[in-house]
Amino acid sequence: MKILVTDDSKAMRMIVVRTLRQAGFAGHDVIEAENGREALEVAGRESIDLILSDWNMPEMTGIEFLRALRASGSSTPFCFVTSEGSDEMREQATAAGAVGLIAKPFTAEAFAAALSTVVSA
Amino acid sequence: MSDIDEFEEARDDLEALLTEVLGTVAGEEAVPVWDEGLPPGPIVSAKLGIHDEVDDSFTMIHVRTSAIVARVLASRMLTTADPGPDDLLDAIGELGNIVGGNVKSLLRHSCRLSLPSAEMAEHEDAHVSPEGVTVRAAVLGQVVELTLDVPDDVAGLYWPGGVSGALEPQS
Q1: CA distance B50 to B66
Q2: Which residues does chain A have within 8 Å of residue B93's beta carbon, measured at their own beta carbons?
């Protein structure tokens, strides 16, 4: 699988990649992007199997990225990894077509639970 | 009830929030502390704003710690033995972002959270806590502070999406 990890923090991108491995999802190709706009460009030229994205980012937010992605016709599974996990944001995420929202700080177990249906171990 | 009174009433929740986030991010036990301050030496801090569009009010969040803690966190987050200055700012900025997101979920869930703005300061004034309600937790034997206040000035905050530095309506 090819997984696109989008976050404006390099430290957080590394933590997400590491946590994917700890959750049992090792051996996948990972591509990184720093904001929604960059991620949208990557998703337009690469065949991506899963997108893990922060919500609050410069240039283009995660929800703007998701809406633009769905508007382009892509149905790539999309999961938010964000510091805000309110019910309101979960509803927004679901309505826009996300498969889930993992709230920071997270554990490997949270990744496993949220992604087990879309990522092969 | 004033905003400061509200923050004061939420003190226990803020303390628990800081301790939990810090412990998870550091991968070490974190404990609340009440009578310890930041140690001498450089201070690394992150600030974020929360904007309430209903009454156009702001809440400012400050997360501050020593460069020693920032270096350990950056080292662990980035898995590097020798993190550079930008890595320290990235690590504390992300810690601030996680704390800020959780504060927003606790107290200001319908509002808008800014991006973190991190800096390192060595001058003596950097050791003075911002005005407002401050809670502290210790990890790795060092203190991390979280302060919530009502700012007079919101210049220098950066907001998600759109043009950096400009405050735009949330979609």
Answers
A1: 24
A2: 9
CB atoms closer than 10 angstroms to residue B75? 16
This model of the complex carries an ipTM of 0.91
All residues of chain A having their beta carbon less than 8 Å from the beta carbon of residue B49 are none
Asked if A12's CB is within 8 angstroms of B77's CB, the reply is yes
Strands (E) located in chain A: 2-6, 29-33, 50-53, 78-82, 100-103
**What digits encode the pLDDT tens for the residues B44-95?**
999 999 999 999 999 999 999 999 999 999 999 999 999 999 999 999 999 9
Chain A partners within 8 Å of B53 (Cβ): none
Exposure of A49 in the CB half-sphere (CA atoms within 13 A):
11
Name every chain A residue with its beta carbon within 8 A of the beta carbon of B114: 56
Strands B142-149 and B57-66, by their bridges, are: antiparallel
> B87-118: buried (b, 16+ CB within 10 Å) or exposed (e) per residue?
bbbbbbbbbbbbbbbbbbbebbeebbbbbbbb
Residue B104 in contact with partner chain A when CB distance is under 8 A: yes
- Is there a contact between B160 and A9 if contact means CB atoms under 8 Å apart? no
Question: H/E element holding B148?
Answer: strand B142-149
Alpha-carbon gap, residue A42 to B120, rounded angstroms:
33
Contacts of A83 (CB under 8 A, 6+ apart): A55, A56, A103, A104, B97, B98, B99, B100, B101, B102, B113
Contact A84 B24 (CB under 8 A): no
Stated pTM of the model: 0.92
Q: Chain B within 8 Å of A120 (Cβ-Cβ)?
A: no
Distant-in-sequence, close-in-space partners of B14: CB < 8 Å, separation ≥ 6? B7, B103, B106, B133, B135, B146, B148
SS3 content of chain B, % helix, strand, coil (to 5): 35, 30, 35
